[in-house]
Predict the 3D structure of the following.
Amino acid sequence: MVKIDVAIPKTRFDMLTYDAPDTVGVGDLVQVPLRDAEKYGIVIRTYSSRKVKHIKKIHDIIEHQFLPSPLIQLYSWIADYYLAHMGEVLRLAIPQKILRRHEPTLQRAEPLVVREPLIPNPAQAAAIQDIQAALKQRTYGTFLLYGITGSGKTEVYLQCTDNVLARGGRVLVLVPEISMTPLLFDRFKERFSGRVITIHSSLNQTQRRNVWYAIKRGEYDVIIGPRSAVFIPVPGLELVIVDEEHDHSYKEHERAPRYHARDVAVMRARLENIVAVLGSATPQIESYHNAMAGKYRLHTLDQRIDAKALPGIQMIDLRKEKGYLSPRLERSIQEVVERNEQVILFLNRRGFAPHLMCPSCGFVAKCPYCGLPLVYHKPEQKRRASLSCHICKYKREKISICPQCSRTTLLYRGAGTQRIEEIATRIVQRVNPTAAVVRLDRDIARKKGRTETVLSAFQQGEACVLLGTQLVTKGFHFPGVTLVGVVNADLMLHLPDFRSSERTFQLITQVAGRSGRGERPGTVLIQTYHPDQYAIMCSQLQDYPKFYAEEVPVRRELRFPPFSRLILLRIKGTNEDSVWREARSIAAKLRPLSGVQIFGPNRSLYYRVRKYHRVFILLKVARTYRHSRLRFLLSHRAKGCALEIDVDPLETF
Ligand code: ADP
Ligand code: ZN
């Protein structure tokens, strides 16, 4: 008999201790009694050091080595680093309803067919050679592939994948969202038809479970999936690729563990002793810093394929040139449409107008819960006109009479994507009455299949303008696009967050990279009130290294990441007093700890969301700080409130 620690998926327990026969091993799937029920659990440790009374015996070993031990180490690392319970980690890591009475239906892949690679240019060849050399050594190594948009990063991924497959190994490719990266997926499918599988968010639970088992059995050689795919057991895994490593959708925001899939991927590579490749045109500052510090190996692709020119970028100073779409942008759009080319317009705000106000008495329509201005949405697609809160989703019908002074002259101020859609449609139809504008934002993407319809309409040339929020900044390749217009570059700049410059630079650079990818050269016009701000200036120059050089001293000075690590504690609850009381009591528990700088408790930027009050405490620790010292937070029972822990938060408000 041995004393073992078992984690049970979907429980808020960390681990439970049982007696088991000596034959039990780490990663085994076991059946255990828990109160009056039978549960499946995974063996995490076969030597328990926990002090527990009345230890029960496990009932059965269902499968030896259900998960390989490097993965168990990875899951343990996640629980430690992101300050979460093992039960919460396993909820993400293994399918719901692990076993059913029936064997999962066998999903068989087609035989592998590999197409001819392209001839790499010298920069691609250098990266490929270096990565292949590391693959051959079969040791851990992380590469950062910094390549401007259109420089051929995907081809590097493909040739490294080819190399691994030729030796019988397997490759895991993480992408921000499948529907946003159809191109990458198509290119993998085209090159390696047969043994490629993608994990879509549209799979239902049964399909998801079948796919999980098929991958675990080794049915597929190339697995492409979103952030949660980083947990899947893949036998013979030799390479993990993280495309667009800077993308925020790699971070889990909603539930514990609030992990970042890129960082988990790098840790996985380390534990499995394999190679990780991170790619981006706008690396997260931390990643580039790791490359500069020698932790990652850097490869730079700084030319577009065929020496295609980067688009010429011009600023439009909104202090001098007025209008939602200034006359210069309007003229440029018309010229592009006259030439039968295409335009992408980017504005990071949904709806028609962000403010509804009364010019007579100053009334502004606000959310009764959050107190923030309500956004006016025009009616469309069976949805009625509404005023809605983008923070808490509160919604009410539109008003046409001022509730304060009863006048009917309400003003819709500011512009969201719906208003720009109207304006842009008028502009293009003056050139060509049949010209069309398509829009892509979350209101559109909510409807199943709509995203694909919009993108394919634009791809086929049925529309000459694609207008949207950050959804349009992703890695699309539309050869017809010769103009990108950034309607308002300043929207992200004003967030009270240390990443606001980085976000601004990334979004503008990414969307600018959509211009001039075909035969004809491209242009980008950026409308801004702050043409001198360095993030906006560097994005005009398309110069990431320069932006990095400007940004790093700011971070160092303020001791923000990468020069420290942040841990955000958010306390929320319905009773305002108890939220503050709990927040202060948590802060008081933290204060005696050495090596932890504490900021707050403070009001969150969105202090009231629906019935919740939200307060946060920000902790700054050294990068070498051991998170186990904060583990006591997990057992803190805040009365009447919830405590959320976010390690390495992407947003700090
Ligand atoms: P990125 O991923 O860096 O934005 P892509 O990999 O999409 O760039 O490459 C841009 C375009 O160049 C694609 O159409 C791709 O097929 C083509 N391409 C990439 N590498 C080569 C190469 N070595 N020779 C010819 N064409 C290439
Ligand atoms: Zn609200």
Observations:
- Residues 353-414 form one domain.
- The chain has five domains: 2-93, 113-305, 310-350+416-556, 353-414, 565-647.
